Amino acid sequence: MNKEALEKATEVARYAAGQAAGGIRSYYMNKDNVTEVKSDNSPVTIADKEAEKTIIRIIKEAYPDHDFFGEEYGRDGEDSDYLWLIDPIDGTKSFIRGYPFFSTQIALMYKGELVLGVSHAPLMDEQAYAFKGGGAFLNGESLHIQNKWVEHSSCVSTGNIQSLIKDKWSQLGQLLLKFSKIRGYGDFYHYHLLAGGKIDLLIESDVNILDIAALTVIVREAGGVISDLSGQNIRLDTTDVVAGNQKTHAMAMDYLS
User: Fold this and answer.
1) 167-193: per-residue pLDDT in tens?
2) In principle, which of 162, 185, 186, 195 could form an S-S bond with 222, CB 3.0–4.6 Å?
């Protein structure tokens, strides 16, 4: 895809996320949700379903021949080089409990490569977005990874790490001791902080591609390094993530890979 096509597709995704946000906010504020439990024991609400329908409808109007893979309605199409990855509410458990750290995630994969991402947090009025070769932005302002290592103010954030601590508790502990502050921002938020130079490293071991596809593009375009725990590129089957600058990512690989 050329820059013009990527820029247009990013604008479509940004618009779709913004349109979904209104419904998400309304359900959240009115606490008007019917919660179901999916086969994997994760919750889903009417807000998740309605938001995903809105996003797919808008993108399909612009790109009727593209394929879609959504959190709530699964895979639609297997033939296109273009695959949209959609998580309408990443952080449904937070949404249900009235905790505002949830977001809408929209990414585009072209011939197996992640090329654009939009991460929209309705309750925080934050929209981060990026496309390959175009830089990363938060509400119109450029995002840049912090490349300078300042040990006395360094910060690492962890998300879901249940699987990691089962196998590498000691290694993780030694890595965390390298940082001045240890936080657990989790979900979309620590990716936004990392891309904006506010923290230095993030680690998660229990995720799926819909949680991280858009954020992967944003981190890369902000100048960061992101991979799975073995150092491989983010793929459709990725379930763990390490992201930081060149120094912190390499440090994490030394301890965890």
Assistant:
1) 899 999 999 999 999 999 978 999 999
2) 195
